[in-house]
Amino acid sequence: MVVGEVAVETDVVVIGGGPGGYAAAIRLGQLGKSVVLIEKDQLGGVCLNRGCIPSKALIHTAEQFHGFTHFRKMGIHLPEKEATVDLGTWQMWKESIVSQLNQGIAHLCKENGVTVVTGHAAFLSEDRIGVETGGDFETYKFKEAIIATGSRPFIPPFLEVDGEYILDSTSALALVQIPERLAIIGGGYIGVELGMAYAKMGSQVTIIELADRILPQVAGHLVREVERKAKKLRITIKTSTRVEKASIEEREVHLHLSSELQVGEILFSDKALVTIGRVPNTQGIGLDRAGITTDEKGYIAVDSKCRTQVPHIYAIGDVTPGPALAHRASKQGIVAAEVIGGLPSAIDSPHVPYVIFSDPQIAGVGYTREEAQLQGHEVKVGTFPFRANGRALATNETEGFAEVIVDAQTHVLLGLHVVGADASNLIGEGVLALEMAARVEDIALTMHPHPTLTEGWLEAAEAALGHAIYIVNKGKASTTD
């Protein structure tokens, strides 16, 4: 099709087939709308194909391999120097997972009447969009549209990702050999997750972070167990340190570093992974032709119904201000679809959980103690260490704790945070508790199965009330400690 031909008409165009985009398209199909879902690469977006799923597969593999080092204390004896990790074989396993999920999404789209188009999309006007599909160009006329184009890694101008020496998260997950020395530029969650995984598989890892500690967006006391584990894994952490320049010399990466304590240091590594942050994919999609503007960082402002300044065009996920999380994008996608479908839907909850797949894992929802106090709350905190939990002891995973943040006057729960081996699965109870506006007694009076890590929430709640069973209560629960 060439420019100027009659456009294909549809109720809704969704630009981007990631977690937000395909969720929106499927929900629109359920609501009886005709939907065109445009994805320039593969359904599932970065999360499924090059991010969340592949990285967690790598982390799981690293954890299984590293677990061999703890078998002897449990009476399991393996031949020494027999265990190895073959990343080539792992890549095939990873691709099988991705392929299975891709096929599942494609099937769901088909069954819900969603037309999937592969190509690069850009607005031509506020009701038309053009799609380059190979050597063709197709035009779609829509009544409403959803922008779900996601984000990409931020790469500083002085670093050039070549996929061989300088890596982004995508190329780091495509390696077929474990690097002997791996430098990671950025100590946020991606850098820490992948750094710990590669360290467990034998890499000599150095993490370079500009802030004064790793995971600077997370409350400091939640990070301490991760810092301790990083030291056990012999990961070198350079905080308050900036990378000034990078060069490739004699098949190795030379990173020129500077800090308050040392200027002119050069770090030598086989590969360097850049994990500084992400930027929204809002350029090159013709937003100006649709009448949509972005802020100085490229984000699109939306209201609680995910509407942009152009009422019939919506934006969801990483292109909107807020945490770049797949589950947030999916929720926004469903809300946008339901608003288009005439349902009374909105993003009406501030409770967005986060999970960091470090070792141990960190997860949380709601306020930290400091945040609650800044909001004017008198705070009680209940904490229960997993070293006092039977299940944690039985599985040799005693690092970490569960923590509840409680309003001292009303006993309403303000935040729940957990550090531990299965924090990613445990935090669901915390999200539900905040959504239900639960009081700490609601958790304390709820029977939790034994022996499980979920008992950590029960005991933390009991500790906040001053009558925990499995730890010594320190008088009345403190409002400041």
UniProtKB/TrEMBL annotation:
Free-text comment on the cofactor: Binds 1 FAD per subunit.
InterPro entries cross-referenced by the UniProt entry: Class-I_Pyr_Nuc-Dis_Oxidored, FAD/NAD-bd_sf, FAD/NAD-binding_dom, FAD/NAD-linked_Rdtase_dimer_sf, Lipoamide_DH, Pyr_nuc-diS_OxRdtase, Pyr_nucl-diS_OxRdtase_dimer, Pyr_OxRdtase_I_AS
Chain ranges of the FAD/NAD(P)-binding domain: 11-333
Alphabetical keyword list: Disulfide bond, FAD, Flavoprotein, NAD, Nucleotide-binding, Oxidoreductase, Redox-active center
GO molecular function: dihydrolipoyl dehydrogenase (NADH) activity; flavin adenine dinucleotide binding
Enzyme class, spelled out: oxidoreductase
GO biological process: 2-oxoglutarate metabolic process
Reaction catalysis annotation: N(6)-[(R)-dihydrolipoyl]-L-lysyl-[protein] + NAD(+) = N(6)-[(R)-lipoyl]-L-lysyl-[protein] + NADH + H(+)
Active site: 450 (proton acceptor)
Binding site for NAD(+): 186-193, 209, 277
UniProt-annotated binding residues for FAD: 56, 149-151, 318
Pfam families linked to this entry: Pyr_redox_2, Pyr_redox_dim
Nucleus listed as a keyword: no
Entry's EC annotation: 1.8.1.4
Cofactor: FAD
Domain of life: Bacteria
Disulphides: 47-52
Keyword Flavoprotein tagged: yes
Domain Pyridine nucleotide-disulphide oxidoreductase dimerisation: 352-460
Additional record remark: The active site is a redox-active disulfide bond.
Similarity comment: Belongs to the class-I pyridine nucleotide-disulfide oxidoreductase family.
Entry protein name: Dihydrolipoyl dehydrogenase
Species assigned in the record: Brevibacillus panacihumi W25
